[in-house]
Amino acid sequence: xxxxxxxxxxxxxxxxxxxxxxxxxxxxxxxxxxxxxxxxxxxxxxxxxxxxxxxxxxxxxxxxxxxxxxxxxxxxxxxxxxxxxxxxxxxxxxxxxxxxxxxxxxxxxxxxxxxxxxxxxxxxxxxxxxxxxxxxxxxxxxxxxxxxxxxxxxxxxxxxxxxxxxxxxxxxxxxxxxxxxxxxxxxxxxxxxxxxxxxxxxxxxxxxxxxxxxxxxxxxxxxxxxxxxxxxxxxxxxxxxxxxxxxxxxxxxxxxxxxxxxxxxxxxxxxxxxxxxxxxxxxxxxxxxxxxxxxxxxxxxxxxxxxxxxxxxxxxxxxxxxxxxxxxxxxxxxxxxxxxxxxxxxxxxxxxxxxxxxxxxxxxxxxxxxxx
Length: 372
Known about the structure:
Elements (H helix, E strand, L loop, with lengths): L37 H10 L4 E10 L12 H4 L5 H11 L2 E8 L3 E8 L2 E8 L2 E6 L4 E6 L19 H11 L4 E5 L3 E3 L2 E10 L6 E9 L5 E8 L7 E9 L17 E4 L45 E4 L12 H6 L1 E3 L2 E4 L5 E5 L4 E4 L3 H9 L1
């Protein structure tokens, strides 16, 4: 996966992003050596090439919101337009335990352990599967030859690994973010550095983000998101078990169960991925690259979202009946211009004309955006 956030690192620490290399199985550093600077840890994360590992990830949210069962969001998740927002609701309200398996960019499996059920997202070569044991429904997609690791996103799941979540926050970081080192930690038996990201932007609800980084490999092991004014994390995801060896090949084999409903899904053409810079070794500090050119302020496809970004879903793309669901009406309180689902970290505004606005920003920001 391309790590676009490397563009804002200081010139002395901009790494050459490595797409090759294999982690040493069982590499553990209980007490990591102190790095010289936060930039060194950022470079270590940017250059990590975690191609083989398996483990258990636990995530939980403490936002003051009631738990939303996955089945209550089923009508929304069937819509590609609102699927992301529905997944966000589940992510922010429901604790999850997931087993994750990775063996290179084309073999990935995530098993979400629900109560008396499980959901699976699997990529095995060019085949991508999802399976919900409660509904006995299967989706299948065949990726085009040469599809990169980003194509695995076809199998969406309401669980984000620490690595995935860390990359999102690091993509939002930049000149508007203070980066520091916290105390070293031990996560799932692995020694880790701690990066602390503190937004300078006043218009966000995010107070800080702490990312535990495996000291030898650079793999993010845990992410804690703190809302402004709170001492306990509003959102937490971390490995509780981690094996840096190759999973058994049988983990990625999938055959639809008898009687399951199987739906074939088309996939978009794969995005073009730039070539990686060779010559670096996983677990070592990469050499510096030339400093990126100053931004002109113009928006480009490479522009990353900021801490105060607001996502707007037009009314035309909201699935029929979603806004009238009893669950949505129960959770959202009336405000000027619509209904608001409010929490310490994320606000969601449903306008009277049917749009949905989402952001880690105050409700007033969403209302102002909706009025534009």
